[in-house]
Write a structure and sequence with these properties.
By secondary structure, the protein is mostly helical. The chain contains 5 helices and 2 strands. The chain has 2 domains: about 5-55, no CATH class; about 55-160.
Length: about 160
Amino acid sequence: MKKKYTPCNSVLTTVNWGRSVGKNIFAALTTVGLASGFHVAIDKEKIAVLAKSLELFDLVADFQKEKINQKYLVDYRKAFHSALTYLKLDAFILKYSGRDPDDLINRAIVLHNKAKISEKLALVRLQEAELARKKSMRDKRLAEIKARRKKEELKKILKTKE
């Protein structure tokens, strides 16, 4: 069973005897001795000495640094895994090249180069498809024009035979 903290059983407290005696005299007079006791207060100097001896402030600072480092690592890894285009990989490389704990920059550079090539190839394929579509439409229009001319020529020939 856990002991509960109370100011009465703590080594971090100080008894204020002057206040306790004054309180007890007043309490004894007004309550016929039923409300007597002593006044205990938390001693800030003892807490400061204890905190310094345990290096609590250094521990808190280290904890905060570790927390910041953990957030950095989460953001860093998340940024790497979400960088799917060469532009995002480029931004990742620029942002994290100064601090690369998992050596992801080298992997990002390789992926960046591959992504750049594949994106350029995809763009070339799109341009080729667009050119092929335009050529097909042009060929279709030319075929329609040729068919119309042929039809007009046939009409002329038929009119001249009449």
